[in-house]
Amino acid sequence: MGANPWKLQSVLLIISLIFGACSKDSEEEFGGSEKALSPDGTFYVISTNPDDNATNVLVNSSYVINFNNELQSSSVSEKNFYLSTNGTAVPATLSHSKTFVVILPSSALSYSTLYSAYVSGEIQDTTGNNLGQDKTWEFTTVAVSSDNSSDNSTSSGNDTSTDTTQPSVTSYSPADNTSSIAVNTAIIVVFSEAVSSDSISTSTFMLLDNASNSVNGSFSISGSTVTFTPTDNLTHFRDYSVSLTTGIKDAAGNTLASAKSWSFSTLSNVVVNLADSNGMVMLSGGRFEMGADNESQNDGSAKSRELPVHTVTLTGPFYVSDHEVTASEYKDCVDAGSCSYTGSTTNSKRTYDVSGKENYPINFVSWNDAADYTAWLTSIRSGTYRLCTEAEWEYAARAGSTTKWSCGNDNDSCLIDYAWYDSNSRSGPNDVKTKLPNSWGLYDFHGNIWELTADYYGGTYYSDTSGGSTNPTGPETGSSRSTRGGGFSSEKQSLRSSNRYYKSQTSQSSTLGFRVCATP
After folding, report:
1. In this structure, is residue 322 part of a structural domain?
2. Which of 79, 184, 218, 339 has the highest Cβ tally under 10 A?
3. Bridge partners, residue 135, by sequence
């Protein structure tokens, strides 16, 4: 800055963000406008800059407060946010952007002075949660002899001061290593002083995806705050990084004191599209805890093959059928010459080509038969059809739950409305979609028929991936395939979301069928 740095910051510091009212991805019709909200409903201050009790704060600094949730705009007022010294309020301009509030003094602060920042406990986030109690922080400005950033001395009416102070990053959003960031977010960086608009570009201020591709967008620069708004929504459940180079300069040409980089991931609300005409439900992907143990999944019936609980990320999007493949649907493949039926023709529980059982799940089919069926679907529909991976299957079965079954932990009182199993259906399978769906609109994940998955079965596979994994597909080889969900004659413990079993690739039985997934 020049001799009077505040001339460059006399404009109101208003950070303008562009948030889509709905997802920019036309397929994600339920994406909506996603707001940064704490999952447990609490509202609090994450950080301030300067920190509480900071010393040697530059006199041309602004005060930045970062909250965990997005603020109601009506809460941002001089009554609720202000700086003061010796009981006297400091004239300042307020700006607000999502989770940030910036208090920008109207003129340089005084040297060697104690200041207080105040936030009222009455402020609210966008869902109406109050901060709860008033908050105050203190900081002390730098002594005059050690601050070269604002020298207003003159000689014979001429300004001879030289600005040699390099700008630095004082705060930014999203914060480093944060997750659950909305896909319609913008990147906000607050510098220690106003930066030159000529120095801000996609070569000095970069948002990169997990493949190091630059994300397109536009910049908004107001004083010491730079906002980057992506042209399109970010992708759900992806890692992103922000990189600032020393090519960023202040008005005097001083370069950024040091390069800065940080990362975040978009893990906001799961997008679930209603089933299409074929019953396929699109899931945007997500992260969940796979497996079960007593502590993390409230599941006292966990088997060793379900341990340990491990974090799984599904990048998505992918489709999952809202129902098990029916006898009628499978027969269509046989009639088309792409599938064969070699199962029982006499067993009373068989469903293939039996009048009145057209809408029952197909049974007496093997993993190989299921693979033929998915290949046929791929040839006649858009997308690539396949069996669901074990991870996709459990993710869809849980539908966001961490309980034994997607409906809760209440044994028969829960399952009786959601599943066909030994308490209500020992005689054989039943029509699909006649029990209640889970919260994502998916039917019969518990009971009716055991469902084959794409993965080879490995009893200790979870131990090999205990550190977490992304899009796991099971062991590379094996002698059997994983099955999930339990069947019409299974006891309720076998219907748990985390329960795993297996069948050989050629096995056929009255309790064995499948559902399909697809990649767009």
Report:
1. yes
2. 184
3. 119
Amino acid at 153: S
The last residue of a domain, from among 205, 234, 265: 265
In a shared domain, residues 372 and 230: no
Q: How confident is the model over 404-418, as pLDDT tens digits?
A: 999 998 777 889 999
Q: CB–CB of 56/142 below 8 Å? A: yes
Q: What is the pLDDT of residues 392-406, one digit of tens each?
A: 999 999 998 888 999
CB 181 within 8 A of CB 268: yes
- CA 111, chain centre distance (Å): 44
* pLDDT recorded at residue 301: 64
**Amino acid in the structure at residue 259:** A
Residues 344 and 476 grouped into a single domain: yes
Query: Whole-angstrom Cα distance, residue 167 to residue 149?
Result: 9
Assign residue 237 a region: left if phi > 0, alpha if psi is -120 to 50, beta otherwise? left
Residues 6+ apart with CB under 8 A from 201: 219, 247
Count: domains in the chain: 2
The DSSP letter of residue 435 is S
d(CA 179, CA 263): 9
Global confidence as pTM: 0.58
Integer Cα distance of 59 and 111 in angstroms: 7
